[in-house]
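FORM 7B: Structural annotation worksheet

SECTION A. Query
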Amino acid sequence: MASLSIKANDLSIISALNDAGVRFIVIGGVAVQYFGCREWHDVDDLDLLIDSDLETAKKLVGALNGLGASVHFSTETIARPANQLQIKRAPFYTDILTATSDQEFEVMFSNSVEETHQNVDIRIVSRSDLIAIKQATIDNLDKHKKDIECLKAV
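SECTION B. Predicted structure
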């Protein structure tokens, strides 16, 4: 298993979300890298899964606005299940996804791996949940296929 590598700007988002009490799980390329299936320089953004509820959305907006990420989404939009919100303004390159249901998030959260990186607590999606997320990806890009093959092998 590779060690966890997270870019400084991504770590600042994670730290701000922790400070605001937002429960989230790191998914996507950072999680794939954590399980040893990508090099850190092949991770292009930070993907986070959050619970789809209004309280989480309010905390998220406060944390991101505090970082200067200029979130222009309403809390109602953020709280919708199965939603993807992109924050693509320098220096942030982040996708925030909401769970399809409270139950789904709770299961993934309880299955997630707890890590600490540079004194910041991070929850990373479990390998089996990451495989399921990758298999459900609509675009089915080659990178997702390669990720799934590698994740199944580790």
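SECTION C. Observations
The radius of gyration is 15 Å. The beta strands are 24-27, 46-50, 84-87, 94-98, 113-117, 120-124.

SECTION D. Sign-off
Analyst initials: ____
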